[in-house]
Amino acid sequence: MFLLLEDRKDKERAQRKLEAAFKGIYQTEKQLNLGWMGNNRASDVHTNGQMWYRHELFLDGKVDRWLNWFGYLNSTNGAHITVEVNVPTDNNSQTVSGFFARDPASGRVLLMHDGGLRGGRKGVGKSAYLAWSTHELMEVADSGGNIRAGIIVASLDSRSFQTEIERFVGSVRAFKDAVQDGLLNTEAFRKREREFRKYKREFSGRKRGSRAAEIDYISRHGDIVDALKAWRELTLEHGEEVTNTGYIDLVVIGPRSDVREIFEVKTGCTRGHIYTAIGQLMVHKITTPCAQSIVIPAGDDLPDGLEGALKRLGIRTVRFQLKKKSVEILGYSHQKA
Fold first, then answer.
1. Residue 202: its pLDDT value, please?
2. Domain segments of the chain: what residues?
3. Does domain 214-332 have CATH number 1.25.40?
4. How far is CA 229 from CA 135, 226, 249, 294, 329, in A?
5. Residue 131 has pLDDT above 80, yes or no
6. How confident is the model at residue 200 (pLDDT cuts 50, 70, 90)?
7. Which helix (DSSP H) or strand (DSSP E) does residue 110 occupy?
8. What whole-number distance in Å separates Cα of residue 220 and Cα of residue 25?
9. Contact residues for 209 (Cβ-Cβ < 8 A; gap 6+)
10. pLDDT at 83 > cutoff 90
11. Which is more confident, 99 or 287?
């Protein structure tokens, strides 16, 4: 999970870094007539001869923002804005599609976009673009625990910065071309878009404070494993013992060193958490039969279809609840399949 840049100074540094990166790779300056908000105006851009970039600080007294516009040159000095990745200066209003985030693992700053597109044409929109594209939605949390979904446009520190930016802008252009040519006006694509909207609700359904709760789970991971160990030891059979490995959080070993049950603790119930846990359990299930259990927070619902999938795979779920000075293991949510 990434962290939203909220402080204006942090965002301003990121914006300046973005502008400097483009001045380094798009070294030709050109003036184009760009249409924006119903008007055409002469605008200075940086270009590599094919694609262009323009930045500007826009103050309207409502949502002040840095404008980051991208497009392609044509045979005249006129041009269309392919995509805007504008970033609010003093807040992170979701009426503006762009934002900066930081990857806490690497420290890298990322330019991100929520997928919301404008094009003045029926069929050009957020859910349609995200359903059509191959972009992966990433979770970004603010300091209040609110979760926002977005796609990575580019890492400002990446050696492949130019490639990442141009791939994103190119995908938006290809999408708009597909809409214009009527290629998405099919029942198959409409079904795909409906499925995406259902998937997207899983992001918007994340509770306020879920990021703060996840940090608590991470910081108390050892407490959770200790409580799980004590709980499982209550029902050990003769000769069994409980241990762990560097790859699995808890393992029940039989008297002949056979692995009888494995547990994997996760800090949330998103598809990403559950898919990762399933993969870990499958990889490290080294004996048969071997019971498998995913340990997840109480109170969080599993995404649609996953409870049934876990049952079919024979994977049980165990719920835990953090208390101020202890962890309570609530037991198996369902029995062995």
1. 56
2. 2-206, 214-332
3. no
4. 40, 5, 10, 14, 10
5. yes
6. low
7. strand 109-113
8. 46
9. 144, 145
10. yes
11. 99
**Token pair for residue 88?**
């609010």
- Which tokens is 229 given? 């160990």
Nearest by Cα to 133 from 66, 184, 69, 187: 184
The token pair that represents 124 in the structure block? 């050009």
Write out the H or E segment, with its range, that includes residue 111: strand 109-113
Neighbours of 301 (CB within 10 A): 10
* 3-state class (DSSP) for residue 333: coil
Structure tokens at 141: 């949390």
Percentages (nearest 5) of helix, strand, coil residues in the chain? 30, 30, 40
Q: Order of strands across the sheet with 259-265?
A: 241-243, 250-253, 259-265, 291-297, 315-322, 327-332
Q: Name the CA dihedral angle for 286, 331, 299, 247, rounded to a multiple of 10 degrees.
A: -20
- Nearest-CA neighbor of 93 among 210, 9, 6? 6
Q: Which position has the token pair 């878009």?
A: 193
In angstroms, the Cα distances linking 242 to 203, 231, 233, 278, 287 are 36, 10, 7, 21, 16
